[in-house]
Amino acid sequence: xxxxxxxxxxxxxxxxxxxxxxxxxxxxxxxxxxxxxxxxxxxxxxxxxxxxxxxxxxxxxxxxxxxxxxxxxxxxxxxxxxxxxxxxxxxxxxxxxxxxxxxxxxxxxxxxxxxxxxxxxxxxxxxxxxxxxxxxxxxxxxxxxxxxxxxxxxxxxxxxxxxxxxxxxxxxxxxxxxxxxxxxxxxxxxxxxxxxxxxxxxxxxxxxxxxxxxxxxxxxxxxxxxxxxxxxxxxxx
Length: 237
Description:
Distance between the termini: 24 Å
Oligomer: single chain
CATH superfamily of the largest domain: Pseudouridine synthase I, catalytic domain, N-terminal subdomain
Helix content: 10-25%
Number of strands: 15
Number of helices: 6
CATH topology of the largest domain: Alpha-Beta Plaits
Strand content: 25-35%
Radius of gyration: 19 Å
CATH architecture of the largest domain: 2-Layer Sandwich
């Protein structure tokens, strides 16, 4: 297996990002820096990235965490801030499928299957994410059409969101938005451009997996049926 593919399946990054890490001398094989992304990894090779030995897990595990506010989506933080891994008590090396910013709550998937993670995150696969937001007022019909087409969200980027449903109760509106990409803080940036006040932001679904009644700050392993649904996405079925 090529070294860049090995890094991708170990959950380090996409193949393109893995190429950059390798060429920047961030990967060692058997204690020696390896700069060639096409290096063929052998079964007995010791591959290290960021001082961690990498291996491809044969038994896939996926867990669902209901992320609370105040936690950042990373395995470790040099500044000592709280991370989502502080909530998941396991010795197993897991990595997140996508990210949620510190102040966003809701569904976050973690796995040891790098290939699955990259499939679910890559924009070309158009895996839907559904967010529940609370704002000051519902969107008007022309605003819904605009968001479904494209909204300039700054930094030379455009965002898109489909309004699944919305409901106004006094001074607050509950809106469910569907997005297909994972641009940084995309929902927040769209809401800001649409001149709405955002009170809360929660992800309630990722692909076929729903948050359900998992308490905030708690997690569970996916069921066999849920695992099969995600594996079918991975295989392109």
